[in-house]
Design goal:
The complex is a heterodimer of chains A (162) and B (311). Chain A is an all-alpha fold. Chain A has helices spanning 8-34, 39-44, 47-64, 70-98, 107-110, 115-148, and strands at residues 2-3, 6-7. A two-stranded antiparallel ribbon of chain A has the order 1-2. The longest helix of chain A has 34 residues, at 115-148. The radius of gyration of chain A is 17 Å and the shape is elongated. Chain B is elongated and about 115 Å long. Chain B has helices spanning 2-20, 27-81, 130-149, 154-169, 243-246, 258-267, 273-288; strands spanning 92-99, 107-113, 119-126, 175-183, 188-194, 200-203, 206-209, 228-231, 237-241, 296-303. In chain B, helix 3 packs antiparallel against helix 4. With 311 residues, chain B is α+β, with helices and mostly antiparallel strands. In chain B, strands 1-10-9-6-7 form a 5-stranded antiparallel sheet. Chain B has a 5-stranded antiparallel sheet with strand order 2-3-4-5-8, covered by helices on one side. Classes of the chains: A mainly alpha (162), B alpha+beta (311). Chains A and B meet through helix 3, helix 4 and helix 6 of A and helix 1 and helix 2 of B.
Chain lengths: 162, 311
């Protein structure tokens, strides 16, 4: 399967540090919660913000590495948002299966839904709406990058990674 | 085409999913996501703008450094065009200085010992300032040296330089020009003055001016400059200067003026040339009160007691 002239493996390799960033924030949030850090502070360590920042960084990477075009941004947004939502779903599922509570399964985020409903809502809305926002942001950022900071000799689109 | 396909498929998929899970929808999530992504986009755009500014600043700095280096190189080349050592024989002694207003100069002075035992000296001021004037100045220098070496008379030098300059600049630029040829045996100075400030001659304490013989070079395609002659005695002092000297301070509404220069040169006429030069330049700089607005050129010539003609 090729997206924008690159194999999925190439996209994953490009985004690997960003996957790491999301995992780090997700784990930090979880650890802080388990360690009893006040909720005000835990709320500041947001996986959603980490996802948004990752998509922003992905647009920068795609532009400056001359990796590809808007299709690559869409793919990056999809992969990063799916990864973010997957981690959140894992945390909720773990809490449900072990009958424990953590920051991801907190009622303020569950909005009164059952664990299954909460997971379904993340998988449906988290992925889709998250992707829509992330893709829109990534495309806007890429468009602005192309106008504000054009990369020299960036005539060809879709140059494979070395 | 492929991009469009991806986008349409993506939007269709999103629509279907949202429709299927509409009962699980939380409106507050939209607001949270919207704020998160809008804030991130704004931060990204701000970062981009700052990066762009940084890039432009860096490019400007590099360009400025490159131009500065080029200007320094041009200045070095131009310094080499001015005489490094002024001749002390031929019954004349010289002292010359040129202070460019914009790094490099459109003014010019030269002293050329000739093969017939005579010595020629010249002062010119190219119209305009900066690089364009300096390029014309170097061109004038080369042609003048060639003509002088070929044994041309002052009238021929003036006429040919005029033709050359008019041809090169198509009459758009001009140069005021003084060219003198000193015959040590006859103690006679033959000269042409094409629109240049009349040089000051201090002879036996009296001040005279060497008159202008015609319009500046380069304005008209063809004209003859009348040659003037004057006899000079030992101790006579000739001061050739560009308008930058007499017009110093004109931006502030009061120029240094020829009368003041005449007075200054006459009052110091008995001193060594280097000292007179320093007195004049100090007075002019003090008068202007700031960086020179025009190139300042001063060539001082004094008749000495050595009256030898190279065979």
């Amino acid at each position: 399967m090729r997206i924008d002239g690159h194999r999925l493996r190439d996209h994953l390799r490009l985004l690997s540090p960003l996957f790491g960033l999301i995992v780090a924030v997700w784990a930090l949030r979880l650890i802080m919660d388990l360690a009893g850090t006040p909720a005000m502070i835990v709320r500041l360590v947001s996986v959603g913000v980490a996802g948004a920042v990752s998509v922003l960084a992905a647009a920068f990477l795609i532009h400056f590495k001359r990796f590809g075009s808007y299709a690559s941004v869409l793919a990056a947004a999809c992969l990063l948002i799916c990864w973010e939502q997957l981690l959140i779903v894992l945390a909720i599922a773990f809490a449900a299966l072990t009958h424990t509570a953590n920051v991801y399964s907190a009622t303020e985020y569950a909005h009164g839904l059952s664990p299954a409903g909460h997971i379904a809502s993340h998988l449906i809305f988290g992925v889709t709406i998250g992707w829509v926002f992330a893709a829109a942001m990534g495309c806007v950022v890429l468009w602005m990058l192309r106008h504000l900071v054009p990369v020299k000799g960036a005539g060809r689109i879709g140059t494979p990674l070395p | 085409m492929r991009d469009k396909f991806y986008i349409v498929s993506f939007l269709l998929g999103v629509g279907l999913l949202l429709y299927a899970g509409r009962s699980l929808f939380q409106e507050s999530a939209i607001v949270t996501w919207g704020l998160t992504f809008a804030g991130t986009t704004a931060a990204g755009v701000l970062g981009m703008a700052l990066y762009r500014v940084q890039l432009e600043l860096r490019a400007s700095r590099q360009e400025l450094a490159m131009r500065h280096a080029e200007l320094n190189f041009a200045l070095e080349v131009q310094r080499a065009l001015f005489p490094r050592q002024l001749p002390t024989d031929h019954g004349l002694e010289f002292s010359g200085v040129c202070v460019p207003a914009r790094g490099i100069s459109g003014d010019y002075y030269d002293v050329v010992p000739l093969s017939n035992g005579r010595v020629a000296f010249a002062v010119a001021d190219i119209s305009g300032k900066g690089i364009s004037a300096a390029i014309l100045m170097s061109n004038l220098h080369a042609v003048l040296r060639t003509l002088a070496a070929a044994g041309c008379t002052p009238a021929e030098v003036g006429a040919r330089l005029n033709q050359h300059l008019h041809q090169v600049t198509e009459g758009l630029r001009f140069a005021t020009f003084f060219y003198g040829e000193w015959n040590p045996a006859a103690r006679c100075l033959s000269y042409v003055n094409a629109g240049h400030n009349a040089p000051i001659l201090v002879t036996s304490g009296r001040v005279q001016r060497l008159e202008v013989c015609g319009p500046p070079l380069g304005l008209f395609p063809d004209f003859e400059l009348g040659v003037r002659e004057c006899r000079l005695e030992q101790g006579d002092l000739l001061a050739l200067f560009s308008d930058g000297v007499t017009e110093a301070g004109i931006e502030r509404g009061r120029e240094f003026g020829e009368a003041q220069l005449e007075k200054l040169v006459a009052s110091h006429a008995g001193k060594p040339l280097a000292q007179i030069q320093q007195q004049v330049m100090t007075a002019v700089t003090r008068w202007a009160g700031q960086e020179a607005e025009d190139d300042l050129t001063l060539l001082l010539v004094r008749v000495t007691d050595e009256n030898k003609e190279t065979p």
